[in-house]
Each structure stands twice: as structure tokens, then as C-alpha cells.
Records
---
Amino acid sequence: MKYDIIVIGSGPGGYVAAIRAAQLGRKVAVVERADIGGVCLNWGCIPTKALLKSAQVYAYCKNAAHYGLELEGAVRPDAAKIVARSRGVAETMSKGVQFLFKKNAIDLIAGHGRLAGAGCVDVDGTRYEADHIILATGARPREMPFMPIDGVHVLSSKHALTLDRLPETMIVVGSGAIGSEFAYLYASLGVKVTVVEYLPQLMPLEDEEVSKTMERAFRKLRATVLTSTTVKAVRVNDAGRCEVDVEGKKGAETLTADLVLSAVGIKSNIEELGLEEAGIRVERDKIVVDEYYRTDAPGVYAIGDIVPGPALAHVASAEAICCVEAICGLDPAPIDYTTVPSCVYTVPEVASVGFTEQQLRTQGVEYKVGRFPFTASGKATAAGDRDGFVKLLFDAGDRLLGAHLVGANVTEMIAEPTLAKALGVTAHRIARTIHAHPTLNEGVMEAAEAATGAAIHL
């Protein structure tokens, strides 16, 4: 059968590409070898947030007395039921994507797709033709040779999503978004967690002030944080416990735990796609593309985790729309990767966009800072969630360069600074935009006021 566009992969890049193409009148097919909706909907973004919500509710129950409430009996987490709820949420979202495929008359082809010559895709021995082929095959957890994943003692993030019992102890290797979220999840449910991070700070991609705040938050949970620490080897002893050889500030030592979670990054799914035969370049595990995601092979495109750029679901979706609209002749603006928000769903949450202070100092860029602590927020005080702050960075012309937020619900608040940065909004304009009171979002206004020297509540 001949299609206008075939998309290989149905994650947040693939399914968005397919739906946008169908909206623009193209005949579209999606090839998927696993779960509809990809890792994000089934084994990443969505089910992890369901687990984290259970942990948050558990924390509220334990602290009910703080809100003037009395609970009878003990509140205990049931790992199996928490996981069952999470899997139900993921299944609901996957079914939603299938519904959208039907609504938009998109054909779903089950199986492994690979390039098979100009304008051809082979799916397990059956050939399909298309004028344009979009590769959106995503990524999987990276496995390190010194830390082999067996799914029983040493886990990937996928395994950690479906534990039916809580271990007493866990070592999390890596403190990016995935590692930090799982570390928070299990520590808040009562597991004794140790986080091991190779780089000098927790959440190494975040602003240094954010990282220090989150390290204090983890220690409040009685989680141990070891930064500037290298994992040398992981093994399982005769008692079935994990032994982790590390070298850090205290020198060499061996840590022990019931389970180890490997959260050391992801690896692009670019194997067995026929890239070499198609003459498509790959550099550092990523497919080389231009600003409209065209590869070296005519009519073949790539988006999402398999191309350079942040490996985030919303980035893949944005790339999908840009790519498809370019194919359809709409002349979209290329994506500005300095205006991509990033979120970590711990408690407190972390959200950021644009440049960090460290990056601006390294580049020699003159900047000024506006801060607002949530300890001064009426809404945060009323809610009992006063940890964190809003920090905005502005250039000499008062244009927003970066925003870094820590606190309750800041992943919902980051949209305003993201829009402000994209539009080149000044500190004065943000400060003079009326924000509803009382809200956490007032913190953005207050931080902008602080940058202009007109802070009211500080």
C-alpha cells in the first residue's frame, strides 16, 4: 500500500507527527513494534507521575495533623496497589492514542519497521511505500558494563515501575530527572535510599542553587546523597544483596542494598533501522538532521530521542510538528532549543528554562537576578508547602535569559517564563502583569519585581 507519510514509532514524537500529518490531509500509517504511545505513555512520563502522586498523597496522610485532621489507624503504602493504579493510568492514555489514530484515519501497522530502499519500509517481511518516512523510535535505558541489569537485583527504570513490594534499602545510580524521581518516590514510601552521582552536584543539569536546595530536600527524607562519586562495580552476593563498589570523597568503599536502580541515561533506538544502507549519518549515537529533521537520505526524517537535543517528550512532539509542517510546505520556524522547559516531579518540584547562572558566567554574559522565596508566599504558607523559590535571570536589556523554580506545582508554573523568554518579555513587563492573589504564580511577578528593584514583599 502507498502512503504519503509512514511514521516508525508511536511515542510522543511519532503519534504527534502522524496526527498532524493526517490533519493536513495526508494518508498516514504508523509502525509500532511494542506499546502504542511509546515509552512516555507506557513506561515513562505518565506512569511515573501516577506513582509519584500516590507518594504525595501518602505524605499528606502522614502529615494530616499539620492540617488539623485526625486519621484513625496507621496509613501504609501498598506497593502492589500503587503499581496497579499506575498501570491503569498508562493503559488509559495508550487507549487514548489508539482512539486518536482511528479518529484521524491513521493506519496502525504492528511490527518492526526498517528502511528498505527509497520510499520503502519493511515491516517483518511486508513492504509499504511512502513519499516521506519519519523515524521516531525513541530510546531505552542505558546499560553500563560495570552494572549489568538483571531485572531482579539491578533494575532499569522500567523494572522500578512495577515493583510489587518495597525493599528496605535501595541504591540509585544517577541523579538526573529519572534517578531523582525514583529516589524521591521510594524514599517517601519509607525505603532507605542512597543516591550516587558521578558529577559534583545532584541534578547536574540544573542551576547550582536548585541542586543545593534539592539536596537538602532529599536529606529531609533521610536519603543519602553521594556526589562526585564513581561506581566501579555492582555485584550480587551469596545472600542475594547488591554490593556496589564506589570511589568518592571518602575514598573507596562498598555500599550494600537490597536493590540497585540504574538511572545513568538513555540509549537511542537506532539499531536495525537500515540507516547504514540508506546512507544516513550517525554521530555519537544520534542521527544527523537539519533544522527541519531531514536526514542525508531523501524523503527520510528523524525526530525525538534519536536526534541531537534534549531527550524530552515535549521536545519530540514539537519536532514532530515542525517536521510534518515542513514536509507539507507550511514553512514553520525552526525550534529554539534555548527555550525548552525541563521538569523534575519530586517534592518539591523542579522546573527550569533557558540558561543557568553557571552557563552565563562561563559565557561572560552580563546578567541580573530576581529571586522570590516561597516562605514569603501567602498561598505556599496556607498550603504548608513553603520550600523553594523562583529565580529569574535577565540580560542588560532586562530580557529574560533563564528561569529556575523549586517548589510545589512549579512544573505548572514554568509555562509563563517559557513564553516570556520566547517572546523576549522584559522584567518590567512581567512585574506589571497582574497576577491573581493568592497564587504560587505570584512568585514569578515578585521575582521580576526584585530584578527591577521594586520588590514589594521582600
---
Amino acid sequence: MTEKVCVGAIAGAFGVRGEVRLKSFCAEPEAISTYGPLTTEDGSRSFDVKLTGSVKNGFSARLSGVMTKEAADALRGVRLFAPRDRLPELTDDEYYYADLINLTVLDTGGKEIGQVRAVLNHGAGDILEIHGKGLASPILLPFTKAAVPTVDLASGRIIADPPDGLLD
């Protein structure tokens, strides 16, 4: 498991006084401001976050040390991370996306299908993007109980029962 979890991203400047547009990836979007300070992926910068309002697809926010529109614009696309120990405990059958990346995916017969490279969500539910040696192209497996009956983080593997025709 990773030590840091991506909880949001900066979408650009909001206004001319250094505020940013902030996208939250948290189950409770407003909680992003409670996990701070948040860091960049490489840990080189750290920000305290104060939400100042709601905007389309996110929030307006003040980040510590960001005082100008130019400084806010320069942060566009930066992903923000929180230490795992500051995040809420998950219930059974809940996972942080970061924990699923690179897990080995086996079919119900124990044959390796590949590894999870990404977890996607385009609004209709989570989808695992799986890459493997025997696959002509990546497969997209619905992350449902029917298609993924077992996730074993301790062993670093997922047991999958892909829908008929997915692996053909």
C-alpha cells in the first residue's frame, strides 16, 4: 500500500488574488481541506487548503503560499496528496484506487490475466484497466462484485470472473 493517496488536483486559477479551482477526489468532497497539509506527488511542495466556495466541478480554494493569479495558474494540473494515516478507515469491500494499481489479476482458475494499471470512473462505476502479456490490448473489467469477487491486498492479487467474451 502506498504511503500517500491522491485526494485532488488543481484545475487552475480562480480570480486574480491567488485562489485556485480545486477538484476533490474524496468520497466527501469537502473533506479535502481536513487532510492537510497536502503535498505534490514528489513532496517538494506542501499546501494548507482553505475552501472558499463552490464552483462547477469543484471548489474555489486558498492554498498557503499562493498569492497571485500567476502562481495559481502555474499549479494547473498538479495533483495533491495526503498521507494515508490522515484518511478515514475504509470498510470491507472499499479500496483506495492507489491500492489497486499494480495488483496481479488472476481468473477463477488461477491463471494470470495481467496487472491493474489504472482505475477509471466515467460516471457509471469503477473499471479496472488491465494490461497483460497475453492480451492484444488492455481490457476494461467492471469493478463489481460479480466480475471481481476477491481483492486480496495482503497477497497483492485480485481474483476476477470476467464477463463472457471479455478475454476472447
---
Amino acid sequence: MRSWKKRSISAALALTCVAAPMAQPMTAYAASTAEKILYGAAAMLFISSYYSKMDDESQLQLLDQCQQETGVYDSAEADNRVQTVYQNLKDTGHVLRDYKVYVSPSEDINAFASLGGVLCVNKGTLDQMDDDELAYVMAHEIAHGEKRHSVSGLKKRVGLVTALNIYLGDASYGEYLLGNIAANYVSNAVFTKDQEKQADDWGFQYLVEAGYNPGGGAASMEVLRAKYGESSPSGIKAVLAPGNHPKTSDRIHKNLKWMNAYSGKHVEVKDDWIVVNGEKAFSPAQDNAYSQKERLYLTAGKLVKLYHAGHVPDAVLEGDRICCGNTVIYELSSEEDGRAYTEALNQGIRKDRGERVVSDFDIDQRVKKVTRD
């Protein structure tokens, strides 16, 4: 009888939350330990349902809150740039939600995804990154939205005791309190390191699916590392208090591993050299627009993309450019030996031109896995 009663209470509490998450829950009374546990589970489900509803239905309100807090950068060029990148990511068919994207006037290199599918990119990010790098930053933030990380993060911020008080207390005040909690985190990250790692992973997938340079991820992380060191910022306020992201060098290393896998393990970056089929090709030099490591990752990324497609043609020196077919792999500075670079690159290419890579990066298989999750 006692076991049946516990199951009935649990089912009733769960049904109350799912069927009417915004309705007034049952009145509190002197509960047993078992019932308190059940109330706790129901209370957390209630909070999760509240924020899920806000995430699904309050996009314009949350957009307004974000823009009031951050300001909006008044530039048609900047807006067009982020909207174009977003649309390219969306057009893959694997970004399922619709997002509101805008640019803030902050000079910090940063971006954040808020509850409701709102994505803010700082002007400083646009100033310091090219479109391949920007696409990875935006893809990373979109991944947070696709996995509903804001909902789970806010749920943790509420905590069990507060959740119980809200669930068993006055409904209107509870909603007011939950709204205030959400507002406090509207432009500040509530994500864990594991969620950041997951967003990095999915960000790389979105990046390459949209046709951007696979090296954009590592290069964007290098821009962050050069400015902020090992703990890159998260959210608009975390420039002053970073800590929930993995070490930036670890994020670069992970992107390089994904690049290697995406190439069918034909291309890797090792000791600041581009290596093709085990042969050292060259180590790119810094130029006015990019640091040495940015050029290293972006140049390697072009080769990675070619090897993913398979049957890589010989590299050819055309003036101050090294090309493989229609792809410009590298633009030389006046001090660099283009012939030596091209010869070394072809030594690696001719060892193995590669076949189309489908086993590790099959989009249909990934979508099936996402559906199962």
C-alpha cells in the first residue's frame, strides 16, 4: 500500500507540472521525507517547464531585454555580416530553431546566446575575426540554443530550496521571481564546462556543414587566446570573471583533432607546421591581417576541406599564390619561397590524394544520433 501511494503521489505531482506548469501547485503541509523528495522532483520539473515555455514563447521580449542591456550597434554592414553568416548556418537544415541575431557596440571579442534563441555578437568580434572565424563563434552559440543549455543552466541557478518555495508558494510571486532570475542572466552565461565542450563540438559540425573553412574554429580560439589568455570570456560580463570555458589551448587542440579527422587523417598541424600524409609542407608566416597561428590553422583548414572531398590535385604556384585546383591554399609574402613550399606540399599530396570522407562526418548519421538523444 505504501509503495502504491508513493507512486501515485509521484505521478500526480508530475502530471500537475506537465499539464499546468503555470498553475498554482498544491498547498504545503507537514510532509514526510519521501514526500519531500517527490515535491523536490516535481518542483524542479515545474521550474524546467517554466523556463522551457519562456525559451519557446518569449523571444521578442528577451530580445528587447538583451538589446536594452547591451545596446545595439547601428551599422547596416555589421548587421548584414552576422545575418549572412547566420543564414548560411541555418540553410544547412541542421539548425532547427529560429534565432534573433544582432550586434552590440562592445569592443570586447565576445558573443553570447540567451534564453529564447537570442544571439548577440560584439562589434569587437567582427573587427578581429574574418567570416570563417566568426562563423565558428556563432555556430558555438547556436549550439547552446539547439541543446537548450540556457534552460538547464537557469534551472540550476534556481536551486532546490528556492524551487520548492516557489512551487509550494504563491504562484504570481513565483513567476515574478523566476522572471527576475532569468533577467539577471539574460546576457551572462549559465553554462557548465561540459556544455561548453558540447557547444564546441557541435559548433565545428555546423561550421563545416555550412561550407566554411574547418580551420575557422582553431583560428577563432587563437584570436581569443592572444587577447585574453587561457580563460576566454563567456557572456557579456565574464570578460571580468572568466572560468566556465575550458582552457583556450585545449579548445584549439580539440579543433585541430576534429580537423585531422575531417580530412580523413591526411592533414594535421604539428609544431607550427602543416603536415600532409606525414610530410612537412610549410609553416605560414604572419601577415598584416592574421597572426602566424591564425594563418597556420586557416591554411591547414583549406587543405582539410580538399581532403574531405577527396582526390586532391597537385599544388601549383601561380604568381604569389599556391593553388590546388580552384582553391587558393596560400598567398605568399615577399620573403617566402613559393617554389619550395609548393614542392614540399606536393610531396605529401602525391603520397595519397585521399578519398571522400564519409565515415566520421556523415550528416545523416549525426542527425539520427541527435534524434535519439
---
Amino acid sequence: MSLDFEGRMSYGDYLKLDTLLSAQSPLSDKQDETLFVIVHHVQELWLKLIINELEFAMGNLREDKAGIAFKALARISAVQEQLITAWDVLSTMTPSDYMTFRDQLGQASGFQSYQYRLVEILLGAKDERMLAPHRHRPEIFERLEAAFRGPSIYDEAIALVGRAGFDVPDLLLKRDFSKTHTFSDALRDIWLQVYREPERYFELYELAEELVDVEDRFQQWRFRHMKTVERIIGYKKGTGGSSGVGFLKTALDRTFFPELWAVRTDL
């Protein structure tokens, strides 16, 4: 085992730990602000990995390499479990703890996370208003807008279904990708056929279940986010001016892959 790293790359050098660990710079001397900063840094790192895997999965679906995409989607689900449990750590902070440093946040809010917004866009949530908080950062705005104008992972899945020989309506394959996908009876019927003959259409069946896994965990994350906010600040407004808990609750009613949920009832 080497103990002398003079002129050689060490563990800390490889991971750039000096840069990473120096990023935690609380603006107050309150103990819980360090917790608050670290939990959000960890979540942003996990979001970065989810984006990487989502884009990788989409590229492989586009090239009909569904098996490789499945591995990426399974990894995303595992990462989402970490995001969900991160709220347990933040929930150790009481309302009184948070109020000791909340003023330091100014107008900063998790609502402004561009990585979270990009994940939503890649999953299919297309609301142009949500791009506005990022216009002051051209390089970020351009990346978000490009994803916004392009297909979501569900669009890529639908295209794959079409290439598999199913009669997918052209209005789904050649649509304006800057609009959120809306429920299609025809697509629901196609997924019903897949679910009724899973052995015959196993690749598409597995794809559907991988997508449901991702949305299921995404909704669990949303729910834990909402309950953590309610636990710490109740129904106060969020630091960025949102309605806080009220705003977060509305997200729970939105779905990315509506036909995949509908087949549960119609099967």
C-alpha cells in the first residue's frame, strides 16, 4: 500500500475534494444551516446523476437498445431512493431551528433548481413558465430550452413502440414536443395489448414497468418534499415567493405517463 503521494494523484485529488468540501459555506453561525446546505448539495449531486442516466437511457431507446436503457432506468430508481430518504435527514431540523437562519436565504428556493427542472422536462413536464427563473444564466437557459423543445423519455418510448410494429397515431409521433403529452386512448389500448401478452411483448412490458418505477419514486419524492416543508414551516410562503405546501401539493396530481397508470384500471 502506497503512503507517499508526493507528485501522484491521491483519492482527494481524483474527487477534487478540496473543491467539493469548500462549497459548504453557511451564511450564519447556526448549527442547522450546515445541515440544510449539505442535504441540498447531496440532492443536487444525485439529480446530476439522474440527468446523466436519463439522457443515456433516451439515447439508447432512440437506437433501439432497450436493454441498455433498462439498466439506466433501474439505476435512476435506486438513486431516487436516496433522494427520498434525504428528507428524513432534513426532517431532524425543527421549525425553531429553521427560523434561526431562514432570513439568510433571501429569495433562494429549491423551486429555482435548474437540475430539478431539467429532470421534470426530460420526464415530460413542459411548462414554459418554469424556464423563466433561469433566463439570467444563458448557458443554463439554453440547455433547459433545448430539452424543452425536444422529446421526453416517454416520447422516445412511444417512438420505440411504433418501431416495434404497433399502430401509434402520427399525432403522437410527430407532435410538438414543447407541449406536455396528453392522454391518448389509442396509446392506452396499445399498452393494454402489451400488458395482456407480456411474454410476447416482454421488452416493451419491461420498459413500461421501468418507467412506472421512475414515476412512482418521483411522486414519493414529491410527497416527502411536501410533508417535510409542511413539518418545518407549515403553510407559510416559500422563500422564493411560492405558496409553499400548497404549490407542492398541486404537483402530486400531475403524471408523466398517464396511459401506463390507466392500464392498471382497464386491464
